[in-house]
């Protein structure tokens, strides 16, 4: 299998963490497609995912799988892993946590595009402010939910780690740890895992 991935993408990082957690390093080749932006085309990526988004997984059969959650679910099933609970109640809890974290990533990445790629004279400050507020509310929600996190990380916890890592990577001036000791301490422990260390974005 071949994973089309970008080092800086938090969505692709989620999949790369899962690959390491499941021990699939020898089963999945990771390929960087080169430059990818919202305003450009990348032929290699478009061939695997017509939407031009990473990550995308190319199977040995020639079939392609995307987006990050579907790829993670597929790889977990392929490896016989337990990162997606089988119990319906536990599964919905894990997916709900993933949904919160993934939506926060959508907001954070969109905000990054708006503030780093869009010409300054075309930026919409009201929109920017609202996205920041949503992210802060998401962080507050994670702080409240943190005591209930699974001791062995599932897909939800992995996604939360990707959000917090992306905040450190793209928004170093945002002191999200302030007044959020539970999630700050949890993330510090998570960052000791090899899968998190090996996938730190550059």
Q: Report the average pLDDT across residues.
A: 96
Instruction: Determine the number of helices (DSSP H or I, runs of at least 4 residues).
Output: 8
Structural class: mainly alpha
Radius of gyration: 17 Å
Unreliable segments of 5+ consecutive residues:
none
List the quaternary state of the chains. Answer: single chain
* Main sheet summary: 4 strands, mixed
N-to-C order of helices and strands: EHEHEEHHHHHH
Can you offer a commentary on this structure?
With 202 residues, the protein is mostly helical. It folds into 2 domains: 2-79, 3-Layer(aba) Sandwich (Glutaredoxin); 88-194, Glutathione S-transferase Yfyf (Class Pi), Chain A, domain 2, CATH 1.20.1050. The protein is built from 8 helices and 4 strands; from the N terminus they run E-H-E-H-E-E-H-H-H-H-H-H. It has helices spanning 10-22, 43-48, 68-79, 88-116, 125-145, 155-170, 181-190, 194-197; strands at residues 2-4, 29-31, 56-58, 64-65. The protein has a 4-stranded mixed beta sheet. Strand 3 (56-58) and strand 4 form a beta hairpin. Helix 1 (10-22) packs parallel to helix 3, helix 4 (88-116) packs antiparallel against helix 5 (125-145) and helix 4 (88-116) packs parallel to helix 6. The longest helix is centred in the middle third of the chain and has 29 residues, at 88-116. The mean pLDDT is 96.
Keywords for this entry:
202 residues, Glutaredoxin, Glutathione S-transferase Yfyf (Class Pi), Chain A, domain 2, 4 strands, 5% strand
TL;DR?
This protein is mostly helical and 202 residues long. Helices cover 55% and strands 5% of the residues.
